[in-house]
Records
---
Amino acid sequence: MKIPLLPLLALTALLLAPAAPFCAPYPNGASQALNRLVTPNGDRKNDTFIFRCYNPRYSAVDGTIYDLAGRQVGTMRVKSANNPDSFDVLEWNPDSGGKKPGGVYVYRIRIEKTVYKGTVTIIR
């Protein structure tokens, strides 16, 4: 049985993502992707990819989006930072800077020396 390459690459990227030691438990949850399926159709439900990061030291946070070939296709913007609950919220709109086609993408979010990696899927 032949396994398609794209799902295999996405699974590999997800499995190789290290557990984040800076990701501290918190009553409202920990650092995480809030939605990994994005449907940018203008209905205001899951139109963007959201990542919430626990950041009690208010460190700089940046996020980048790549296609499965490793090319950078977008950057995440800080939607809110320095919140009283110590969470920063990053957002990526796959329609900004030109519509991205449906498919699997890899996100990389860096805070201090910690990197969070995973996949996000755009459904068109």
---
Amino acid sequence: MMRFFNWFYFFVSIGALLAVTVLVYVQDNIGRRWGYGICAVGILAGLGVFLCGTKMYRFKKLVGSPLTQVAAVTTAAWSKRTLPLPSDPSKLYDVDDAAAAGEDLKGKQKLPHSKECRFLDHAAIIDRAEAASPAEASKWTLCTRTDVEEVKQVVRMLPIWATTIMFWTIHAQMTTFAVEQASLMDRGIGMAAAAIVERHRLTSSTHGVTLTVFLLMPQFLLVGAGEAFTYMGQLDFFLRECPKGMKTMSTGLFLSTCALGFFFSTVTVTIVHKVTGHGPRGSGGWLADNLDQGRLDYFYWLLAVMSAINIIFFTMAARGYMYKEKRLADAGIELADEEAVIVGH
């Protein structure tokens, strides 16, 4: 699977490289019509390649929305929050009971019970009204223990998910303020590094010296290397760790960290501009329209401190996380068997 991700990221990077070099050159020196035309031809060519491989693709039948399952488990658990949890987890409603009642499980595999997030176990309690025919109960009032465990697995991943958002906040600066930095430098041919470079650039600009744009290379190299590790790591982590019945949620979790990272960047910039806008450097504050009149280096140092704090929380979350492979192995379930079911072998 990692081999697929490596090639996937390789071609994504090649596309990005061509977009910011060849395509930009064509648009600036030949015309934007040619640039848009190349994009249109590229999209059509990619669509053609995609359609040519249709017969070789393996399709997995959808078993419902994972978001609906999360909502159903949460709603059922809340509605039964006053009911006492049984001391024996085997008394909770599970896929065995559903199968015995003739319910279509859609290939759902039984998962072992875990002690985390016990509140969600309320969703699998059979109350008196459901005791006669639990299989006929609504999924919004009664869920199987396996459904609950799948939602628990998503909850376990949330700390890792949350602590990866900060990286994409940092990444957003490379397409905004770093470009503005470069526009004020000689273009002839992590955040701590960016702050040091910006401080050096700002000092030099006050003396009428224009620095070479190559001084920005360290911050771009660090962010670029970080993107490769983060992009690949997130894709692999979420796809492997998402429950079998909620695999469609894996890429959504990854892409949501990218989106939230850029949104958080906007919020951070707005707050910093609001707080520092009336500073001694003028109404522009740290993020003035003219970088020579602002203190972008202070903003970069702020992001460096936020990243350092974030890495502490990430390390704590990573050390406390138990991978699905180990958790299932402790319960006597082979992950290879589960993956075989996932891909339809």
---
Amino acid sequence: MAITLHCDIVSAEAQIYSGLVEFLAATGEEGELGVCYGHAALLTRLTPGPIRIVEQGGAEQVYYASGGFIEVQGDVVTVLADTAVRADDIDEAAAELARKDAEDTLANQQGEIDYGRASAQLAEATAQLATLRKVKNRSGRG
């Protein structure tokens, strides 16, 4: 039996996950981050993307976080996400439409455009689609 740590994934709306995990992988500002039992204390910002956990016993779960923070203290890892959902709950068609709309907005050179907002929407939609691809590749559905 692998050594575990307690993991909580919390969004502004609700607690998304709470349980024992063998491993957690997420994308931080400095790149990919992996956390297992014995990891050094850490507090860092998350960028939009997948959060993959390997639960006690080996089952894998994938979530999407739009950003936030990850904290590691002792045998506890906490993800404080702006928004978070199970990857299987992402609406692929809506994410694809949001990506296309953001790209169209950025390509439009006429009128007033909020480039910061459009860029953030593009990054979020792209990260959601990348999370879905990761889930599909792991399960052989893609």
---
Amino acid sequence: VGFDLELGQAVEVIYPPHSKLTDKEVKYCLFVVYVFPHVGCLGDTQFCFRFRRSPGRKVSLCCFLDQLDRDLPVYLKKDSAYYYGYVYFRQVRDKSLKRGYFQKSLVLISKLPYVHLFRTMLKQIAPEYFEKSEAFLEAVCSDVDRWPPPVPGKVLQLPIMGVIMKVGTPALADAQISMALPTVHEVDLFRCFCPVFFHIQMLWELVLLGEPLVVMAPSPSESSETVLALVSCISPLKYCSDFRPYFTIHDSEFKEYTTRTQAPPSVILGVTNPFFAKTLQHWPHIIRIGDIKLPGEVPKQVKVKKLKNLKTLDSKPGVYTSYKPYLNKDEEIVKQLQKGVQQKRPTEAQSVILRRYFLELTESFIIPLERYVASLMPLQKCISPWKSPPQLRQFSQDDFMKTLEKAGPQLTSGLKGDWIGLYRHFLKSPNFDGWFRSRQKEMTQKLEALHLEALCNENLVFWSQKHTEVETVDLVLKLKNKLLQADRERLPVKTDTLKKLQTHINDIILALPDDLQDILLKTGTT
């Protein structure tokens, strides 16, 4: 995206050429990728934005990405309703141009939240692209076309213009945090939270509960990094509400999110325009970020500020809220991070400590819920091949609360406080709704898979010999539908089980009269 003195922002080239964005999507990107003068960004700036896809668009992702999605943690799955925009913006003085500045952005649009990978990639290719232009992009796309499909749990070695990028891809069961190798999605947590790290536990609660949050920052870079850090702090839980790393007045939800006629929605916004300091002043939780720098000294502890003290974007950095945390403050993590600053511990190591702290806190919170929800699963002995799979039992808030006395977070966390109140609040949040829907889907698919296995273990040919042709044909059609469902929904079924069921179907059909065989062999897939 370049800047034309007469036309304003304009798309200079799109690669690959067959990529299609709607006019509305292109128009939005044109505005958001150009960092307006109020931000004062001279030099190179990288940031990320996120926007809703136009309705009615067809989803076009390769089948290998669907397979990848199944094996990835929920927070790394593709986002079918939104696009991520990864931007490398250059603004430098150039007297040879009428405007006096060279201004151009290289933008990578993706459904994937691979922040670190795409940021690293743009950092590698953008400076050279600004010098060499279109032919260089064609060469970059050629390199990307040769990248192998990502494999969860494996290290990716991705060639890009003579350089090999090495990044890890977490698998579904990964609990380890690597310090040696960055993953495709991670942001520098400590750098982002450093200005407010005395309040990290409260911020974790606010994100967990899906509270409306605004990050006011001096630049799109600080804004987007802080929002992405907030969203990632409840990992391995997925943040299920909307979040906008860099929100502008050009976003289609601008009126919806800034209106005072209704309560602020469950969303995290990152903003830089001073206009928002007044427009979003009624929001209940506001984080004011100054210039993000790695401190050479221990940051001073700053109390939570009252919202009425926030009048402009120039207000002092800090957290502005009247929220009272449910849990007592964990002083140990603060001391550990302060000690790291004093000892000049590398920021990467500080981020690992912080990420591990958030992970353990979230897991302590979610394990009791996982344990209770697992108890809603019917016993395997209740699964009959000749009946529909049994239903999951209903989630009961009262029953769950009763389990906390003996099997609550106190088993894995030493933190004291009102855990019960935190759970009650969480059960009303979009994050619980999204998490529970995901678990319901997983368990329902598991029941379908167990039902398939139960069918495979039956002598279906013998059964068909004892029943009428009509009943046998009905069974064949149902079994074929089961196979189609297993493929369509990617049920967790072994390949051998599916092959065995296909063999059963073929054997049953071959035992039928020729005319029925012809009809059934043409019906569905066999």
